[in-house]
Amino acid sequence: MVGIATQQRSAVRGLIDQGERLADFLGSLRPAEFHRAVPSEDLTVVAVVAQLLIEQNALLAALDQPTNQRATPLPLYCAGLSLQRHRSEQLAREIADHDAGPTLVAQFAQQQQEVINRLSGEDLPEVVAVSRSALRMTDLLRLMSVEWVLHADDISWALPGRRAIDLPRGHLADAVRLFTEILRHRHPGGSIEIRVPPFAAVQCGNPGEPRHTRGTPPNVVECQPLSFIRLCRGRETWSEAVTHNQLTASGLRADISEWFPLL
Fold first, then answer.
1. Least confident of 32-46, 56-70, 196-210, 247-261
2. Which of 21, 59, 170, 202 has its CA 20 to 30 A from that of 107?
3. pLDDT at residue 81 tops 90
């Protein structure tokens, strides 16, 4: 089994890499591009940049709040995030209304250097206090990494004339695996297999359904990684994913559209 320290170092490297990629891309944007809208979302590129800043601030604040409390399991912690995310998006819109995109990008790049300096230290806390709860530092980094994958996709989606922000295989894999962990936690069972090749395959179920114990379950859902991430975070609907040939579902109980979005 991979040790906690190894997991933490891997999560740190991933988040630093994501921040550098985002800073490079955002630094190349023209002023007019910050006002482009993210399709299907009441967000602009500048509002997404504001969200990145809010999340950087939350991470830096958490680093200053180590705790001896017992850490909340990540799937359980994620179950209570809806209100927090709504408030964060509202704050991001307010920031975007008052600050120009280039100014926010400069703040992001400067603050990202502080994030790098803090995360590169030798003695990161194992558990930190966040949102009236306690979370393993590794889990907080994983959750932030997932959000940054989504934000990178949002920005690329809003700027179709530009080359998309590179989303390395490892970042996509981490996001997919976190979401499949949440699905398995919320819907235990074995009647439905959810596949997100090549990164994950988990078995879940609905209450009262018989548990399948051998071979492939009779209900199979398969989805492409980026579409699965969008589905889990409400950027894409089940029917849209099916229409775009990103998702297939076979079996009488394979329609699990009501499970989404997860966060």
1. 196-210
2. 170
3. no
Top pLDDT among 123 and 3 is at 123
Q: Torsion angle, CA of 63/68/69/73, rounded to 10 degrees?
A: 60
pTM recorded for the entire structure: 0.90
The reported pLDDT for the residue numbered 3 is 60
CA-closest candidate to residue 18, choices 152, 113, 140: 152
Q: Which amino acid is at 170?
A: G
Give the torsion sign (CA, 131, 14, 9, 200): positive
Nearest to 180 by CA among 211, 212, 142, 216: 142
Decide if pLDDT at 1 tops 60: no
For residue 85, give both structure tokens.
């995310």
User: Which residues are CB-contacts of 149 (< 8 A; sequence separation ≥ 6)?
Assistant: 18, 167, 171, 172, 174, 175, 229
How are beta strands 247-250 and 133-136 bridged, if at all? unpaired
**Average of per-residue pLDDT across 38-55:** 91
Quote the distance between the C-alpha of residue 65 and its chain's center. Answer: 23
Residues contacting 120, CB < 8 A, separation 6+: 12, 16
Average pLDDT, the chain: 91
- Taking only the tens place, the pLDDT of each residue in 190-199 is 899 999 999 9
Residue 191 · residue 211 · CB < 8 Å: yes
Sign of CA dihedral 59, 60, 62, 63: positive
Q: 234 is written with which tokens?
A: 């409400």
C-alpha dihedral sign at 139, 145, 151, 154: negative
Q: What is the C-alpha separation between 253 and 55, in angstroms, rounded?
A: 38
Nearest to 58 by CA among 106, 129, 152, 158: 129
